[in-house]
Design goal:
lyase, spermidine biosynthesis, decarboxylase, alpha/beta, TIM Barrel, 26 helices, 22 strands, De-COase2_N, eight-stranded parallel beta sheet, eleven-stranded mixed beta sheet, binds pyridoxal-5'-phosphate
Length: 727
Amino acid sequence: MPALACCVDAAVATPPSQAFIWDGIVPTPESFPASGVSLLTNTTITTAPANAWSPTHSSMLYRVDGWGAPYFSVNSSGNVSVRPYGADTLAHQEIDLIKVVKKASDPKASGGLGLQLPLIVRFSDVLNNRLQSLQSAFDFAIQSQAYGAHYQGVYPVKCNQDRFVVEDIVKFGSGFRFGLEAGSKPELLLAMSCLCKGSSEALLVCNGFKDAEYISLALVARKLHLNTVIVLEQEEELDIVINISRQLRVRPVIGLRAKLRTKHSGHFGSTSGEKGKFGLTTTQILRVVKKLEQHGMLDSLELLHFHIGSQIPSTALLADGVREASQIYCELIRLGACMKVIDIGGGLGIDYDGSKSQDSEISVGYSLEDYAYAVVQAVKSVCDRNGVKHPVICSESGRAIVSHHSVLVFEAVSASSYESPVMPSFGLQYLLEQLTDDALADYRNLSAAAIRREYDTCLVYAEQLKQRCVQQFKEGSFGMEQLAAVDGLCELVSKAIGVSDNSRTYHVNLSVFTSIPDFWGIGQLFPIIPIHRLDERPTMRGILSDLTCDSDGKIDKFIGGESSLPLHELEGNGSVNGHGGKYYLGMFLGGAYEEALGGVHNLFGGPSVIRVLQSDGPHSFAITRAVPGPSCADVLRVMQHEPEVMFETLKHRAEEFADDDDTNGSMSLASGLTRSFNNMPYLLCSASCSLTAANGNNGYFYCDEDTFASAADSVAAEDEQWSYCVA
Ligand SMILES: *Cc1c(COP(=O)(O)O)cnc(C)c1O
C-alpha cells in the first residue's frame, strides 16, 4: 500500500477519489474520500485475481489436504466433499456436505427434515473407516514383526458417549473383538448394555475412581459374561474387590494402572509422571501383588494399564512409555501374576492443523501405522529380552477414533460492516478550534511527521491526540461530535498507514461454550472453514463471535497461527431478517470430547444431530437418524425450571391482560409462547425453521438400519426412504 505518503503527496499526483489529500498542516474535510475502499488492502489473503480463483486455491488456503485427508476435500463445485471410505472412496461415493445440510435444514414442506442449525453431521462410514484403519495398522505391525499375540482395542466412551456413536463402534468392531472402556458408573452401565451386542471376547475395561457400587456393577458384568476387567486406580480399591467378589461369588479379573516415570510434557500430559494424578506407584504395585498372593488371588491379575496423556507428540516418547510399562509387565510375571494383556491407554494423536509437527499440541508427527509399529516393537523387544510370552495388546484410543466422523455446521448470520473513516460535515477547522494547545501541538506534529513519512511517529501523535481529546471529553469541554471526529481522523491515519485491522466480526449462530468448549477452556484449535463458495475468492478476513453474552464467546485464533479467517462477503446484507444467501461454516475433527464437555451457558443447548450413510442412490447419501437439538423447554428443565408451569403462569397473565373483546389475541399470545418453549434456543434464520418445533420437537426421526439396507438395494425406493426418514 502506498500508504500515507501517497495520500499526503497525492494532492497533485492522484485523483482525489482515490486518496485523501493532506496539505501537511490542515486537511480539508472535503478531501477525505467518501468511502475507505481504496485504502483497504487484502494482500494477506492472496494475490490471485478474482477470476483465477479455483477450489484448489481454497483447498490450499484452508490447508484442507493437511488436516482433512483422506476424508475431506474441496470438490469442483467449490463445496466440501466427504469421502466416507477414506482413500478407498470411489468418485461417485463422495458426499457433498452442503447437500446434506440442505436436506437436514430445508423445511419439511420442501422435502427437508426441517432441523434447526447448528447441526452435527455424523458420518458413520468415516467412524467405521477409522476403526478399521486402527485395527489394520496393528494387524500389519504384528504380522510384519512376527509378534506372538493379537491386538484388541477398546473405545473410551468418555470421548463421546452418544448412544449412536457407541453402538456403531460396538457393531463395526465386533468382527475384531473391539471393546469399551468406562470411567464412571453411568459409563459402565452404558458400556455393559452396548456390549451385549458385541463380541463375547471384547474387553470392558473399568477405569476411574471406584466405590463399592462401581465395583459390584463391574462384577455383575462378569456374571453377565461380559469380559470385564477392574483396573485398580487406587490401592484401596483392592479390598473392596476382594470382599465383594467373595460375596457375589465371582472371580474378578483385575488390572493395575501403573504410574509411569515417563512423562509427557504437553498440556495433556500433566497427569503423567511420578507426581501424576492417576495410578499406582512401584511400592503400591508391590503391595497389591503381595495382598493378592495372600488371598490366593494372584491368578486374577491379568492386565497392566497405563495412560501417559492425550495427544502424545512423538513415537519416541510413546515407545519410551511402552518400554517402561512392558518391563513392569514382565516383572509382574516374574512375581507370579498370570498376566495376559498390556493396555497402553489413549494418546494416539490427531493432526488438527495438518502440520505433522512433533512440537505442537495440536499436531502429531506420526501416522496410525507409525504408532502401531512403535508400540508392537517396544512391547516385543522388552518381552523378548525377558523371555516372556508376548501379551495381547490393548489400546484405549478415543480421540483418534471419533474425531473425524463428526462435522459441526453452523451459520454466519451477519458481519460487522467495514466502517470507512468519516470526517464530520461541520468541518475540521471547527474541531481544531476546540482543541487545547497541547492537543493542537499533537495535531501539528502528526501532520509534519506525515510529510516526512515517519509513520511510526504519526501513530504516536495520533494516539496522544486521541488520549487528550478523551480527557477533554471527560472534563466536559468536548462534545460527542468532536470526539467522533477525532476517532475518524485517527482511524483514517492508521488505515492510510496500513496498520489498521481490517478484519470483521462474523456473528455465528452458535455457542462456543456448548459446541467448542475446548477452545474456550484450553485454547484448543480446530479447522474451521466455509463449506461452500470455495470456488470464490474470499475477500474478507473475520473473527467469529457467538451468540452468548460472554466476551469469551468468540473464536479469534485459527490453525496456522492465524488471528482471523479468510471469509466470503455475506450475500444480501447477511442480516438475520434479510433474505440474503446463507453462509455455512464447518468445524472439523471435533468428534472427540467437544460434545461431551459442552455445557448450557446462556442456556444454549446442543446442536441438532443427524447420522449419514453413503448410499448408491441418486443423492449418494442417506440420513438414517435425525435428532433435533434440545428446545428452550429442555434447557430450562436442566436448571430446574418447569416449562409447563411457566407456560401456565404466562398464559394466565395473557388472559388477564387481554382486552375484553380480544380473546383471539390472548390465544395467539399463548400459541406464540408455546412455539418459543418448543423451539431451540438458537436464532431462527428463516421462517421455515419454526416449522420444526411447531411440528413437535420431542422425538427423533428414525430410519432403522434394516429398512435402510433394503431400501438402498433399489434406487427406486430412495424417495420412499426419504419419506420414511422424515415420517
Ligand atoms: C481419556 C482417556 C483415554 C482416551 O485418550 P485419547 O487420547 O482420547 O485417545 C484413554 N484412557 C484413559 C484412561 C483416559 O483417561
